[in-house]
Structures are given as C-alpha cells and as structure tokens.
C-alpha cells in the first residue's frame, strides 16, 4: 500500500497544474491533502468523484483557508472530522480514517508566524493532537500521522537553520514537541530510512527558493512504533511540482 501526503496550497490551483493527471499516473492507494482552501459547495465533480476513489473533505469555515481532504481506494471502516474542539475544528484541520490494519490522521498543523496569538494557537493544537493520538493508541489503534506539521525538526531539515532558529517553524518549543512524539514511540518514517539524506518538502514562493533548493522539510508521515514492522520505505518526492510543497510518500506491506 502506498500512502501520499501533500499540501497542495489550494486544491483548485493544483488541479489547474495537472493534479488529476498526476493522480491517474501515480495511482496512490491513499492520498491525504492539506490546505485545500475550498468550501463544500465549491468542490467540482471532477475533484469529488475521481474514478476508483472514495473522497472525503473537511473544509474550514473561512473561505479560501485551510482544510484537508482524503482520497482512498479502500473504503475506510469509519471517517471522523476534527478533534472535537470547536476552536480547532472550525479551521478544518483534521480528518481521521479508520482501516483494519491502521488508523490514518490527515492533519494540517497551524502556522505560527503571523503573531504570538497564532503561535500559541499552534502550540495548543499540538498538545490537543498529542492527547488525541494517545487516546487512540490506548484504544489499540496503530497510527499514521500524515500532514504538514509546519515545523522542521533538526538542522538537517532546513537550508538555513541558524538564520531561522528564532522564527516559528524552527523554534525550540516547536521542535521539542516533535522530540516528545519520538519519546513516546512515534517514528519519523523518512528519517528512519534516510538518516543523513537532505531533502526538503517546502520552498517559499516569494524568494524562488525551490530553484535554489533553499527549503524546509516540514511534511511528515509519523507512525506509532507498533506499525513500523509494516513500513517498507518512505521518501520526499521533490520532483513533483504544482505547489510550494511536494508530496511525501510511505509504503506499507499489505496482506
């Protein structure tokens, strides 16, 4: 089974850049999208009804902002939307799909750069997600936490760590939350298979950073350690264009 996660920076925008052709060529078993930036009534039929896929959308209340979507060839046993916390759920940031062998969380974590208020919101969101994941694990679920985390973990994960150590996205307090995940037996799958490789998943449009490969790795598939026996490989697909992010990929063994 091949699972992809991609912040598309607007699902209608990426559609104009060949998204449907990429879907047809790639045939992901599961595709988690973040920052779809669309309202339910705006979703065109070509995006809602893709051959051989079930589709689910969690749209934010604010127009043109946030939101996540899931395309899956196998119908999940259950799909849930949000964390059950209104201040977070109104931004449409979480979609949880329950399968027989694992539970997948598609999450668009907040960006904390615009203000201290948004940084506090991001950190509160992190804590709520952690509690949610721990509750799922206590119930016996093996987890895949896919999405745009909006934080680079280690200096290897961004081009200019020293210049960004006081900016949201690489603050010690944000990175400590990723440390906390690993301390509680969640695994960064890409780094597990590629301990020293430098790849980025996001590049700023404003500075034409992708041309210079001055990027950040902020998109992840973390999994609970009890699922690692089924993980075959993981990668960052830097060659895929269409957004300021590229997809991240996870391959699982299946029966």
TrEMBL record:
It comes from the Bacteria. It holds the Pfam family Exo_endo_phos. One of its GO terms (biological process) is base-excision repair. GO terms for molecular function: DNA-(apurinic or apyrimidinic site) endonuclease activity; double-stranded DNA 3'-5' DNA exonuclease activity; metal ion binding; phosphoric diester hydrolase activity. Its cofactor is Mg(2+); Mn(2+). The record marks 150 as: Transition state stabilizer. Mg(2+) binds at residues 7, 35, 148, 150, 244-245. Keywords: Hydrolase, Magnesium, Manganese, Metal-binding. The record marks 219 as: Important for catalytic activity. Its EC number is 3.1.11.2. The record marks 245 as: Interaction with DNA substrate. This is Exodeoxyribonuclease-3. It comes from Halanaerobacter jeridensis. NCBIfam families: exoDNase_III, xth. Residues 5-245 form the Endonuclease/exonuclease/phosphatase domain. The active site is at residues 108, 148, 245. Belongs to the DNA repair enzymes AP/ExoA family. Probably binds two magnesium or manganese ions per subunit.
């Amino acid at each position: 089974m091949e699972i992809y996660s991609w912040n598309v920076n607007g699902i209608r925008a990426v559609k104009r850049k060949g998204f449907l052709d990429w879907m047809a060529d790639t045939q992901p078993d599961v595709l988690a999208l973040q920052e779809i930036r669309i309202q339910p009534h705006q979703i065109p039929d070509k995006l809602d009804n893709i051959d051989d896929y079930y589709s689910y959308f969690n749209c934010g209340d604010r127009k043109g902002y946030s939101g996540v979507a899931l395309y899956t060839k196998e119908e999940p046993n259950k799909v849930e939307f949000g964390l059950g916390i209104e201040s977070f759920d109104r931004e449409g940031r979480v979609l949880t799909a329950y399968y027989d062998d694992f539970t997948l969380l598609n999450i668009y974590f907040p960006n904390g750069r615009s203000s201290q208020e948004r940084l506090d919101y991001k950190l509160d969101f992190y804590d709520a997600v952690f509690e949610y994941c721990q509750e799922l694990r206590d119930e016996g679920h093996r987890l895949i936490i896919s999405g745009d985390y909006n934080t680079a973990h280690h200096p290897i994960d961004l081009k200019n760590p020293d210049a960004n150590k006081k900016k949201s996205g690489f603050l010690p307090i944000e990175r400590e939350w990723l440390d906390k995940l690993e301390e509680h037996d969640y695994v960064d799958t890409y780094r597990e298979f590629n301990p020293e490789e430098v790849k980025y998943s996001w590049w700023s449009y404003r500075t034409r950073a992708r041309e210079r490969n001055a990027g950040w790795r902020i998109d992840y598939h973390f999994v609970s350690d009890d699922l690692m026996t089924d993980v075959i490989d993981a990668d960052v697909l830097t060659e895929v264009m269409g957004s300021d992010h590229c997809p991240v990929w996870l391959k699982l063994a299946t029966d």
